[in-house]
Amino acid sequence: MAVRDWLSVISRQLSERLNGKTYLFIAHLTKNHLMQITLSLKKTIEQSANDYFEKSKKLRRKVDGCKEIIAKFQAQLATLEKKQKLEEERVSVEKPKRTLDWYEKFRWFRTSEGLLCIGGRDATTNEVVIKKHTDPNDVVFHTEMSGSPFFVLKTEGKTPNEASLQEAADATATFSRAWKLDLPSAEVFSVNPSQVSKQAPSGEYMSKGSFMITGKRTNHRATVNCATGSLDGKIMSGPVSAISANCKDYFVIKQGKGKPSDCAKKIAKKLGADVDDVLRTLPAGGCEIEARP
Q: Cβ-count burial of 117 within 10 angstroms (0-12 exposed, 13-18 middle, 19+ buried)?
């Protein structure tokens, strides 16, 4: 406070004392802070100033003590966070890598009757699926759309039921360009492995991942639909009927504008799976998780 302010206080103190009052209340505005002071008229200015000085020392000691406590807790928190990070890194390092089954490098799922169905992810895996993993009694599925995967229903020498055939057809449609084009269905056909060949007509060339189909085809009206679940710790995606029949916990995926990575993160968290393992099973294109009743 300026000298003239103190002179004003002294003047008011004398005046109030003459009027029989015992306390003087002073409000002083400093920048953005309003300071209120109560002075006893029974004491001198020096005595009141000394009282406030002693109070300020006590408050300063309390503030310093609070700062020390805060600093102590911040240090403890930093130590705990560091320990937690080290523990997470240790668990991550120690977590054994699961050995992948041969079919997990492809698109795959188990039909509702338990048959394995595999499909190509790209031109290279299309080649591998047909050339190396197709047996004479299997059923091959494809669409006329460019960029369509080949799917193979592994019959294991059995005659697949209609549900398995339909699920294999639906998977072929779901993982084709129909998903990106937001189409609800697609025309899919199936043939015997003997009808699939790399033998191109004279003067033509079969590009990688493409095959010549000859003979009679069986047509299927396939529906684009997808679900993702965990079967024995393995993440698989396929038709809803197949996934729901095999997986206790699963998520229905629908076409949409959402990022596949966002869907994968949510699914991975719920299933306790690796995000990349989930992401690689999802259809190529935008998707969303459908709320289950």
A: buried
